[in-house]
Amino acid sequence: MNRRDFLWNAGGGLGGVALAHLLGHEGLLAADGPSASPGRADWNGGLHHPAKAKRVVQLFMSGAASQCDTFDHKPLLIERNGQPFDPGGKVELFQSDPGAVMASPWAWRQRGECGAWVSDLVPHLASCVDDIAFLPAMVSSSNVHGPATFLQATGFVMPGFPSVGAWVSYGLGSLNENLPTFVVLPDSRGFAPNGPANWAAGFLPAEHQGTMIRPSAPRPIRSLFPPETEFIDPEAERDGRDVLARLNRDHADDRPGDSRLDARIASYELAARLQLSAPEVLDLSGETEATRRLYGLDEEITADFGRNCLIARRLLERGVRFVQLWSGADNGFPRRNWDSHEDLERDHGDMARSMDRPAAALIKDLKTRGLLDDTIILWTTEFGRMPCSQGGKGRDHNPFTFTSWLAGGGIKGGTTYGASDEWSYKALEHVTTGYDLHATLLHLLGIDHTRLTVRHDGIDRRLTDVHGHVIEPILA
């Protein structure tokens, strides 16, 4: 063999293909002239147009956080406190009759250079208003927790549809082959309504469903490591994998087009890599004491959500595309979520104290590290709460207006788009839907929400169904 043949065999065979993949993934391949395709989204930062953000963290307040006790200031509720609630016309409630007008138990103040009104219930997030774009005219088409949660998580009120994180994973792919593209950190006390269906892949390839991590559990990722037994050693485990690989190939050959086994194989391959990468990501011992205090790990009430927010930052900076954090579990008593029918001051007080400091810390920490510029933070809930009382001390469901907000990559901070009426009862100006929120999120990631489609049951399905508009006024 002469030297030329040797170099071709070494560089043009499988080794060369592997090298090209690695160089391409790192963006180090030479361009093939000015008209060369920029490649996949990992390389050009967008699928349909240049992206302003690479990754997303969604903070989901399960149970329905009250807009009129957090970010939607209404002087009329203070003025009419205790008087009959009469906005004109029939008042539709979920499980009660309209009580008296109920002012927030917390005082309101103008914050930041933008002068946004924020309640004392969330003083730490109040210090971040100049980085936040508020959407106080959000509406939902359901006042029931399960369907309304699905609507914000998947774009549909029915089960069986892919979550927004799965769509992002499907459209953009991974930034780190050793970590999942979509990670979910649930409330340690339990699941929100719908449970893991909120982060399922639906009809997308199963590999795009969220990977659930419970940082406070003895085994944060279930079944990641083999049980500690004497009969499983490295050699036996390797032999078992070889047998499993042969069986999988035979199974797949008999079932062309079925993505479930491919996803299962991919998950096992990822799990093998996670055995090395996950312990490092979840190990907070290297974080400074100041950082741990910033996230509230020094206080019992903030420690759990604070740990999740800190781990979310570590996941994001290592290339995870979409991280979803849940504040609120099922309807246990005392309340373990934001569904404050009985005693708003008690229940919202506890939930907000557990969430406020860590969420603000995530914004500030990402900003300090230069990651907020290309990371979107989305804070949302399934619907709002009524401005009148329920049973004297609680608030009933309100799908007619609630508040979500965004911060970070491509978002114009210190802005507010839309408004509710004088009662915070119904959206009045620039009414905004979850479809609009999802369309805007995808737009910032470089995706045209009308073009990211999958044919399913004879329909070109998409995250935004047949709705949705990009919310241009909040874009930087």
For the structure shown, list the relevant keywords:
476 residues, alpha/beta, 8-stranded mixed sheet, two-stranded antiparallel ribbon, 13 helices, 16 strands, globular
Could you characterize the architecture of this molecule?
This protein has 13 helices and 16 strands. The chain has helices at 3-12, 14-25, 41-44, 75-79, 123-126, 145-154, 164-172, 234-253, 259-282, 289-294, 300-317, 344-368, 434-444; strands at 55-61, 108-111, 116-119, 132-138, 182-185, 211-212, 322-327, 375-381, 384-385, 397-398, 402-408, 415-416, 419-420, 427-429, 454-456, 459-461. A hairpin with a 6-residue loop joins β13 (419-420) and β14 (427-429). The protein starts with a helix and ends in a 15-residue tail after the last strand.
In terms of structural class, how would the helical and strand content be classed? alpha/beta
- Tell me the strand percentage band: 5-15%
Unreliable stretches (pLDDT < 50, length at least 5) are 12-22, 29-44
Calculate Rg over CA atoms: 24 Å
General shape: globular
Helical segment tally? 13
Order of helices and strands: HHHEHEEHEHHEEHHHHEHEEEEEEEHEE
Largest sheet: 8 strands, mixed
Mean pLDDT: 88
Query: Widest sheet: strand order?
Result: 6-5-7-1-8-11-4-12
- Number of distinct beta strands: 16
- Span between termini: 60 Å
